[in-house]
Amino acid sequence: MDDAFRGRFRRIGVNVTFDGHVEIPQPEFISIGDNVRFYHGVCLQSSGGREIVIGSKSHFAPYCVLYGPLEIGEGCCVAAHAVFAGVGHQYDDPSIPFADRPGIARKIVIEDNVWIGANAVIIQGVRVGSGSIIGAGAVVTKDVEPYSVMGGVPARLIKRRLIK
User: Fold this and answer.
1) pLDDT value at 80 more than 70
2) Residue 162: exposed, middle, or buried by beta-carbon count in 10 A (0-12, 13-18, 19+)?
3) Which of 21, 59, 81, 89 is labelled catalytic?
């Protein structure tokens, strides 16, 4: 990634690496901390100017999709094909096609030191507490308390992590 493109970000820290084919159509709405890595095929989409903020020391495995508004804390590990869907569609009137409906955006917040498994989906408006683990394939539709292990569709509490 050339320096001119890096200069378009709202903020980009030191030692931020992008593998091939990372898609970032609107970098001016994205802030990234230090020591962050984006693997092949990751997509960061601010969705109409909605902000994405990523803390330091996090990484995103291949083909993750991040739709803003979104805030991710420090030290987070996101496995392949995870989806953060900060936007969706209204669905109250079935006579209106989805493509004709305005989008709904509610910020997703992922606190520090969270591990999100492969193919997990986090939907709009959800907060995932510090130190939590979201299992592979889980669909998170509600807030997650800190130090929780969640899994399933919809995600449910499997156990609490002990703080030593």
Assistant:
1) yes
2) exposed
3) 89
